[in-house]
Amino acid sequence: MPVNILDVLREGAQRSNLRQASSKMGRAMQSLVWRDAFINRADFSIPVGTSHVLQVRQAPNGEINGLGTGLTVWPAACVLLKYLEHHYAPSNGLQGKRVVELGCGTGAVGLAAAMLGAHVVLTDQAHILFHIQANVQANDVAGVEFCAYDWGAPLPQVVAGRKPVDIVLISDCVLPKLYPIEPLVDAINLLCASQPSTVVLVSFEHRYYEHYDAKDMFWTLVAQRHLTIRMVPLEAHHPSYNADDIEIWEITSTT
Questions:
Q1: Rounded to whole angstroms, how far apart are CA atoms 150 and 117?
Q2: Which PANTHER family does this entry report, sorted A to Z (predicted)?
C-alpha cells in the first residue's frame, strides 16, 4: 500500500508535541496539522476560546464560479483568528470593542472576534453577502452585523455613523495580482482617522511574484499615508497556529 507522506508528517508532528517547537522544521511540520485540514471542504470548524466552536460554510472553488477567492478560510485567516484568541482572550481584551473586518470572505476572523466579546461589522463585496449572512446565522453570535463595502469608498453608515472603531481585521487580502491594494490602504486610512488608538491587524501569507514584492508594495503605501506599520513577532502568535511564511502586521496612526 503506498505511503502518504503528508499523513506521515502529520503523525510525526502530533507524536512529537511540536506545539512548543522553535525550529523552522518543527513549525513547518506542526502547521501541517491544521494548515490543509479544511482546504477544498464545504465546512470549516475550529474552537475559539474555551466555550465556542466556529463553524462556517466555504465555497472552495469560488474563483471558478464567480464568487472570488474569499469564501475559503485560508491559512492566514486561521493564524489571525487564533492570534486574537491567544493575545486578547486571557484578559478579555476584546470585550465590548468595536471591530470591523475588511474583505471578510466567510467572516471567520470577525466571527471569532465576536465570540471573544467584540461588537463586529463584517464587510465585503455585495455579491457574497448571502454567504456571510448564512455564516452569521449558523453561529448565532451576538453583536455581529454585516454590510457591503468596496475598499476606498466612503465608510458605510453602520461604521461611520457610530462610535470610532477600535480594531480593524484584514486576512489574506494583500494580493495585488488579484485585487488592487491602493483602495485597501485608503480604507485603512479612513478607519484609522476615526480615532488615534485604532489598531489594524493584517495577516499576510508570502507568495512569490516575479516582478514585484507584495509586502514591499503594501508597506510603502501605508507609509505614504503617514501610518505606522510593524510586524508582530512570531513568538507572539498562537503557539500551535503559526507558520514561518505567514506574518501578522499591526498598523496604527503615526503620533
A1: 26
A2: HEPATOCELLULAR CARCINOMA-ASSOCIATED ANTIGEN, OS04G0645500 PROTEIN
Bridge partners, 54 (sequence order) = 46
> What cell was used for 57?
460554510
The interaxial angle of helices 24-35 and 75-88, nearest 10 deg, is 100
| Same domain, yes or no: 215 and 227 | yes
Is the model's pLDDT at 209 over the cut of 60? Answer: yes
Q: How far is CA 55 from CA 4, 22, 155, in A?
A: 28, 30, 28
**Do 155 and 239 belong together in one domain?**
yes
Any bridge partners for residue 102, and if so which? Answer: 170
Sign of CA dihedral 46, 48, 54, 59: negative
CA-derived radius of gyration, the chain: 18
- Tracing cell 471542504 back to the chain, one arrives at 41
- For 5, the domain range is 1-37
